Structures
1.
Amino acid sequence: MDLVGPRKGVLVGRRSPYPAEFRDDAVALYRAAGGKRTYAAVAADVGVTGETLRSWVRQADEQAAPAGSCGGMTAEGRDEELARLRAENGRLRRAEKEWEPEREILRRAAQYFAKEMRA
């Protein structure tokens, strides 16, 4: 046992009293909340501490995407994703330009009514 600096993936200490299926369900419950609930809130529901749940989520993320795998995407997949994101970025920029005149009209209307309210 390396006590100076435990290596990644080496279990130190006792085994978890929680079965793997329970841990997986707790992680799935946290992810299903979509960021609307904290680790502590979800952990309280399942009866563990927030830090325990956080470590389970971190472990699940590490197991899902091993180091050096770039999220498991191939070069072609990354290129397709990049092309999709660039197209979406262009679409959003065009939409923003379309909204500029409307935003200016609303700004001027707000100024007009603010003057009317003061008068």
Note: The chain has a mean pLDDT of 84.
2.
Amino acid sequence: MIERLAVSGYRSLRDLVIAPAPLTLITGANGSGKSSLYRALRLLAEVAQGQLIGSIAREGGLSSTLWAGPEKFSRDMLSGEAPVQGLVRTAPVHLRLGFSTSDYGYAVDLGLPVPPAVFAHDPEIKAEALWMGPELSRSGAIAERRGPMVRLRSEESGEWRVVHQDIASFDSMMTQAADPRDGIELLMLRERMRGWRFYDNLRADRDAPARRPQVPTFTPQLAADGADLAAAILTIQAIGDASAFGAAVDDAFPGSRVRISGEDLAALEMRQPGLLRPLSTAELSDGTLRYLLLCAALLSPRPSELIVLNEPESSLHPALIPPLARLLLTASRHSQIIVVTHSVALRESLHGDRQTIEIQLEKRLGETLATGGESPRWTWPSR
């Protein structure tokens, strides 16, 4: 489970460190930085996919994603006695992302390319580190990258050995130095991160992919857009916790049942009390379909270590929020869940649960801050 999540220099996240729980709600007013935190977590996951640089390019390049305020706020700026202005920069430009569990941690530091550069908008990976334990230390580091050089620490002798001298600035050591014989820790971390799941595009409109016929193939995890909903539910009912899925459906729609029919093409059918025939996917309301998508995502027979949901309450009737809360609690027994939400009702439904925390974000002089309590300690790798 992620115990510390750190972001520095990304959009409004100048220097943010939070401590997620098994179930974490990220809340705050519009513009407080919730979407930036969600995107930062997705960027971190893209490192393991080898797609970090491309993802930043799709956001407009490094210059458009960097923190736009001053490097530091003076005391007079914070008190309002002096205008916010740029001071003399003392450190290089950074965009840094990292996380740690009780067992290990990882961080990456991106910066501007050295001119002249052909791809001036693409960031360069300046430093990376993998360490044992929740916080980076000299004794706990087991892999590090500085510029084009990657080195690993021997488990037997503790000595450092260089494994790459000229790794490309757009390649991560996570993808280039992960090896089952020489770099097993990087390989294991990469595969765990590749299992993280993000759901922010579960469409339920009339043209949603989930409403189309699907081939009934083995689908242990729902796709990010929900296109394989029928196959995912069929898989849950075949090898997963079918009773938990049925209970979640009954909780939201009392007396209703979902089944998958068809051999060549899978068709989702929902039987509801009082109706003489089942409803097809095309007949379901947007809210009903979205709730079924969330059930399929959260009750996977192959649970992800981390599931991140962005505004799952969208399209849901207020009566479905308490069942959604109970669904999230059920899923948090097997996966760590982070939910970005605007829903006051969802917060109230989960209030008092010991495994759930709320991290409320707010803006101060354009910077996103997490309210309540002190930030966990965090150390970034040096360049």
Note: DSSP finds eleven helices and 17 strands in the chain.
